[in-house]
Amino acid sequence: MTIALRMVRDRHRSTGWWLVGVLALVLFTIALYPSVKGQTEVENLMRNLPDAFRSMIGYDAAVPLTSPAGYLHARMFSTLAPLLLVVFGIGAGAAAIGGLEESGRLEPLLANPVTRSRVAVERCLAAVALLTVLAVVFAGATLGLAAAFDALTGVRLSGLLGACAAAWALALLHLALAYAVGAATGRRGPAVGVAAAVAVGGYLVYSLLSLVEALAPLRYLTPWYWYLQRNMLVHGVPAGAVVAPVLLSAVLCVAGWALFLRRDLR
Amino acid sequence: MQGDPVSGPAIATEGLTKRFGALTAVDSLDLVVRRGEVFGYLGPNGAGKTTTIRLLLDFIRPTAGRAEVLGGSGADPAVRRQVGYLPASLDVDPRWCARDLLGFYGELRGGHDPAWVRALLERFDLDPARPVGQLSSGNRRKVGIVQAVAHRPPLLVLDEPTSGLDPLLQHEFQLLVRELVAGGATVFLSSHVLPEVEALADRVGILRRGVLVALATVDELRRSARTRIDLRLAGPPSAADLASFAGLAEVSTTDTTVHLVVAGPVDPVLKAAARLTVQAIATHDADLEDVFLTYYQGETADPRREAGR
Q1: Whole-angstrom Cα distance, residue A242 to residue A203?
Q2: Coil vs helix vs strand at B236
Q3: CB-CB: which of B59, B60, B108 is closest to A114?
Q4: Interface test with B, best of A107, A119, A260, A261 (most B CBs within 10 A)
Q5: pTM for this structure?
Q6: Looking at CA atoms only, how far is residue A92 from chain B in angstroms?
Q7: Which is nearest to B57 in space by CA: B180, B188, B163?
Q8: A-B Cβ pairs (cutoff 8 Å, strict)
Q9: Is-contact B54 A265, C-beta < 8 A?
Q10: B24-43 residue pLDDT tens
Q11: Residue in B83, B92, B109 closest to A105 by CB
Q12: How many Å apart are CA B209 and CA B212, to the nearest integer?
């Protein structure tokens, strides 16, 4: 695990800043909850908004926006959490091979007694580990701060932790895509570009398809639907929201690994 | 080509070919580097030297032919453990210091001898705690040299090793390589400048546009090298004086000095000069540059091939 540890150490400083950022945003978001709690106007406002907008921000009529579950889902789990984790995942996945190779740092490493396969596997694991650390810190901060600001009433603990796991899985999927493109091309740009395009495109498709009832079955094509289909804090986590992205990630990583072993380095 | 890991050749290639699209970077290369020799791999920039090294180390795969390193494949960690590679430019994380780099590579290689590494750092006057990104290009080159030899590899693959080093450090580097060779190491030394190779190599291969155009010992090259001789005469030479030098490779004059370039034995010059009043003779060391250049001639004077790319 020497190579994986080295990658974790090389990225520990930037990951540290990410952790600080995540903690600050979680604190900022949850600390605002007490001031939203009693305001019924918010709920009335939501009812008057167009469906499309409501679905985009994860509004669920059964869960008032002013309840802890409604607030956390709308402010945190439909926006902030997946966004941060996906962006971090894409960065880590693209750096694992694409970034390393493009900067010319792969060949000196490969001149050592290591196989390409080992480099590919260890750096993939390191990227996943970094994402997992960020997700765990996010989950811990959310749980702890929600408890501190009295924002856990009506929230199922399994739902909260499951939602964190689902956000992690969604980010893992984009990490794996960035990793695979980077491993196949040896470049960072396409890795970030493709994964970011899939993230943005997937989100847009999810938003648009939730408007058109006839196209509803197609929603299953976007990972954002797996993740956002319901308020997990209240209704629990659909198994597919975690299992499907993890399985797809595994397929992508293996594909990237296989292409990397077969091609010429740049 | 035999696959003997102990007594076989250090490097052996058979019809090794690499094409990038229409460009043939390495063309049907047959090369044998024997154990314990210093092999100079010469060629102008873009001749395919680095491509050859990348093929040897399995960074890229041959279009045709094969390459064997220490009786095995350059992809095999057991082989790479015995190879010290100095890339043309050492690209590592600029935040790493030499200690990070050597520690990391040492772990991958199964441990460095700390006393040897310390001695190397002292010898090249490197501060192991300075981040590589803050080092001058010469100091970064030294870090590259230290990491390449830190595990005392039996085979050194050096790509333009002394570019960016001042003459003193070049000398220090040459001493180091000679020590390692005396200890039994084999060196594959790629370069586009002759003195670097001439100082160290036993045998030289000259690569031009991916094709090995010459393979000779340094002595053989020297013997076929041209000699430059300047004769300073008492007065300006007459046409008849100059006629006696007919048949030499080059004859020219400035004032009272006759400049001669002789290919092969210098005896005809001495015989001809005996009839003149020679005040001084200056001979310039046989310069491999001249030999080298003859293999490169046509590099730009062959538009047909250039256009074919």
Answers
A1: 17
A2: coil
A3: B108
A4: A107
A5: 0.87
A6: 16
A7: B188
A8: 56
A9: yes
A10: 999 999 999 999 999 999 98
A11: B92
A12: 8
C-alpha atoms less than 13 angstroms from C-alpha of A40 in its C-beta half-sphere: 0
Query: Within 13 Å of residue B243, how many CA atoms lie on the same side as its CB?
Result: 3
Residue pLDDT, tens place only, A204-233: 999 888 777 788 888 889 999 999 988 999
- Continuous segment of H or E residues that includes residue B78: helix B77-80
Q: How far apart are CA A27 and CA B285, in angstroms?
A: 77
Cβ separation B104–A6 shorter than 8 A: yes
Bridge partners, residue B231, by sequence: B258, B281
Identify the pLDDT of residue B307. Answer: 35
**Residues A153, B186: Cα–Cα separation, whole Å:** 73
CB-closest option in A105, A107, A111 to B93: A105
A111 closest CB neighbour out of B78, B80, B93 = B80
Rounded to whole angstroms, how far apart are CA atoms A80 and A75?
7
The answer to whether the CB atoms of A104 and B89 lie below 8 A apart is: yes
Answer whether A230 touches B (CB < 8 Å). no
SS3 (DSSP) at A118: helix
Q: What is the pLDDT of residues A67-80, one digit of tens each?
A: 999 999 988 999 88
The per-residue pLDDT for B291 is 65
pLDDT band at residue B242 using 50, 70 and 90 as cut-offs: confident
Which residues on A lie below 8 Å from B133 (Cβ)? Answer: none
Interchain contact, B87 vs A107, CB within 8 Å:
yes
Q: List Cα–Cα distances, B181 to A249, B178, B259, B266, in angstroms.
A: 49, 5, 40, 35
Rounded distance between C-alpha atoms, residue B98 and residue B144, angstroms: 9
Give the residue from A179, A119, A122 showing the smallest Cα distance to B75. Answer: A119
Question: Closest Cα partner for B83 from B10, B143, B156, B33?
Answer: B156
How far is the C-alpha of A103 from the C-alpha of B87, rounded, in Å? Answer: 14
Q: Which residues contact B195 (CB under 8 A, 6 or more apart)?
A: none
Residue B299 has a pLDDT of: 47
Q: What would the two tokens of residue B58 be?
A: 């399995």
DSSP, res B131: B
Q: Using alpha carbons, select from B270, B280, B264 the residue that is nearest to residue B230.
A: B280
- Contact of B83 with chain A, judged by CB distance below 8 Å, is answered with yes
Tell me the two tokens of residue B63.
């279009």
Min distance A118 CA to chain B CA atoms (Å): 10
Taking contacts as CB-CB distances below 8 angstroms, the residues of chain A near B104 are 2, 6
B105 touches chain A (CB under 8 A): yes
Residues of chain B neighbouring A265 (CB-CB closer than 8 A): 54, 59-60
* Beta strand pairing call for B83-86 and B64-69: unpaired
Q: Is A119 on the interface with B (CB under 8 A)?
A: no
- Residues contacting residue A119 through CB under 8 Å, at least 6 positions apart: A3, A97, A106, A109, A110
* Interface membership of A2 toward B (CB under 8 Å): yes
Minimal C-alpha gap between A26 and chain B (Å): 31
In this prediction, residues A22-28 reach a mean pLDDT of 95
| Number of other CB atoms surrounding residue A12 within 10 Å | 12
By C-alpha distance, the chain B residue nearest A262 is B61
What type of residue sits at position B233?
L
